[in-house]
């Protein structure tokens, strides 16, 4: 699975959601994620396979990826152990709901 450590929960009106993802070999493969917004991923440790639409993309330590989050995507560790990934998500409708603008 994936364990998420939220890095900015204390900021209610934030526009971005930064988090550290601890990714295992099973990741979130069974349940592709898709939602409004955009996401930036940066691999801090290990190797991951990012399934994005119909592509499988291998990312190693130091690699990054920018995605449109409405396209189904999953993430799983593909190296010898778990991986750590910095994830920063942006979702304008969610920002509008949080700030009362939507």
Quick take:
With 102 residues, the chain is mainly beta. The protein is built from one helix and eight strands; from the N terminus they run ββββββββα.
Secondary-structure topology with pairs:
Layout (H helix, E strand, L loop, with lengths): L1 E5 L9 E8 L14 E8 L1 E6 L2 E6 L3 E5 L4 E5 L5 E8 L1 H8 L3
Antiparallel strand pairs: 1-2, 2-8, 3-6, 3-8, 4-5, 4-7
What does this entry look like structurally?
The protein is mainly beta and 102 residues long. It has one helix at 92-99; strands at residues 2-6, 16-23, 38-45, 47-52, 55-60, 64-68, 73-77, 83-90. The protein has a single domain (2-88), classed as Jelly Rolls (Sandwich), CATH 2.60.120. A five-stranded antiparallel beta sheet has the order 1-2-8-3-6. The longest helix has 8 residues, at 92-99.
Question: What features would you highlight for this structure?
Answer:
102 residues, mainly beta, Jelly Rolls, 1 helix, 8% helix, globular
Q: Briefly, what CATH class? A: Mainly Beta
- What distance separates the N and C termini? 33 Å
| Tally of domains | 1
Q: Which CATH architecture would you pick? A: Sandwich
Provide the gyration radius in Å.
14 Å
